[in-house]
């Protein structure tokens, strides 16, 4: 469980992070962490989906929800394909 974190503790933590990484590299670090978390979320979701598919079938067919927006690797691959198509067209 998380304890109550005071403003001073947050400021000290931010100060240590700035000292360790430097102010210029912080945007790159946060971008990388965000990307890693997105990939982790996608992988965990796919594992859960695999577990759901492994369950025995019920008498009623299960209705699938509408297609989810692309996340993580799928977005990166789709953007890469769009760039490649644009380069080929020009």
From TrEMBL:
Residues 47-90 are annotated as: Disordered. Keywords: Cell membrane, Membrane, Protein transport, Translocation, Transmembrane, Transmembrane helix, Transport. Residues 73-90 have a biased composition (Basic and acidic residues). It is a single-pass membrane protein. Pfam families: TatA_B_E (PF02416). Signal peptide: none annotated. GO terms for cellular component: TAT protein transport complex. It is found in: Cell membrane. Its main location: membrane. Coiled coil: none annotated. GO terms for biological process: protein transport by the Tat complex. Part of the twin-arginine translocation (Tat) system that transports large folded proteins containing a characteristic twin-arginine motif in their signal peptide across membranes. TatA could form the protein-conducting channel of the Tat system. Belongs to the TatA/E family. The Tat system comprises two distinct complexes: a TatABC complex, containing multiple copies of TatA, TatB and TatC subunits, and a separate TatA complex, containing only TatA subunits. Substrates initially bind to the TatABC complex, which probably triggers association of the separate TatA complex to form the active translocon. This is Sec-independent protein translocase protein TatA. It comes from Pseudokineococcus marinus. The gene is tatA.
């Amino acid at each position: 469980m998380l304890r109550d974190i005071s403003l001073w503790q947050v400021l000290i933590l931010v100060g240590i992070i700035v000292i360790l990484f430097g102010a210029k590299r912080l945007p790159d670090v946060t971008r990388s962490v965000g990307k890693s978390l997105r990939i982790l979320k996608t992988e965990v979701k796919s594992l859960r989906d695999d577990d759901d598919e492994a369950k025995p079938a019920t008498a009623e067919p299960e209705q699938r929800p509408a297609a989810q927006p692309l996340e993580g690797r799928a977005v990166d691959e789709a953007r890469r394909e769009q760039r490649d198509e644009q380069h080929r067209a020009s």
